[in-house]
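Anyone up for a design puzzle?
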């Protein structure tokens, strides 16, 4: 049970955002991806979720090649992701925002929901129960009736993760989830990610917070300008002169 990214290249006009990048994500593991801004981390996520089309290489999920599947079938692969910049309607409540996460897997369909068919109503009740559970797990239940515009950024990011969990993912792709989180929120997120991995979810973590990376991942891939720079344990990577150079280089700009 693996996401297998093999030799993926993504171009945007003249820009090569990713070049010949390979990575494997097994269920139950947390794999890290780090790199300076613009190094292709979000593009890697987009290639895995099918939001961009690689010009070379392949992505498969549990042995199914992504490019053979139309986008609406990809949701069934059990992939969920968060976005680096969460986009929520500021007027909806935290509860409504997490409820939105259930609808891609809504089997009774929109039409059924509109006419309140019994099957749809039953499904809706199941979603509500699961939503309450997720809000509790993520310690968001105190915020449940607040509007998204009333939340500090740290909580918005946690709602983004909560919404991704609604899909009951096999693989979870987190794009800089700790940016703007307070210390207690970071610890909460770290233990949540650990718990998910223990339950068998494969987590791909893009994160600038190296302490969080160090706490969660065994293996981290370092990208620079779309290319694999180094890969290894957080310890070995942090001692590598190429890593130090990449970060000091980007900080100096
Ligand atoms: P990171 O997430 O590591 O900061 P990105 O994957 O967002 O990097 O971007 C990698 C490179 O691809 C950057 O040079 C960025 O400007 C470019 N890029 C990303 N998405 C697009 C897009 N939709 N159109 C054009 N260029 C893009
Ligand atoms: Mg990014």
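Challenge accepted. My sequence:
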């Amino acid at each position: 049970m693996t996401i297998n990214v093999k030799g993926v290249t993504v171009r945007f006009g003249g820009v090569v955002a990713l070049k010949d990048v390979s990575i494997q994500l097994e269920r139950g593991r947390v794999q890290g991806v780090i790199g300076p801004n613009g190094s292709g981390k979000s593009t890697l996520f987009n290639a895995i979720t099918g939001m961009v089309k690689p010009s070379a290489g392949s992505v498969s999920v549990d042995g199914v090649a992504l490019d053979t599947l139309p986008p609406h079938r990809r949701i069934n692969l059990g992939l969920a992701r968060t976005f680096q910049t969460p986009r929520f309607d500021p007027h909806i409540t935290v509860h409504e925002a997490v409820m939105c996460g259930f609808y891609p897997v809504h089997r009774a369909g929109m039409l059924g929901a509109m006419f309140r068919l019994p099957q749809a109503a039953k499904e809706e009740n199941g979603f509500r129960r699961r939503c309450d559970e997720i809000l509790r797990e993520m310690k968001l239940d105190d915020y449940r009736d607040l509007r998204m515009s009333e939340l500090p950024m740290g909580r918005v990011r946690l709602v983004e993760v909560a919404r991704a969990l609604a899909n009951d993912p096999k693989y979870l792709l987190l794009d800089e989830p700790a940016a703007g989180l307070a210390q207690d929120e970071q610890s909460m997120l770290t233990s949540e990610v650990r718990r998910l991995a223990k339950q068998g979810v494969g987590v791909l973590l893009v994160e600038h917070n190296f302490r969080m990376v160090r706490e969660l991942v065994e293996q981290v891939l370092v990208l620079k300008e779309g290319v694999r720079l180094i890969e290894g344990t957080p310890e070995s990577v942090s001692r590598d002169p190429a890593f130090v150079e990449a970060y000091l280089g980007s900080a100096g700009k």
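A detail worth pointing out: Residues 118-137 form the longest helix (20 residues).
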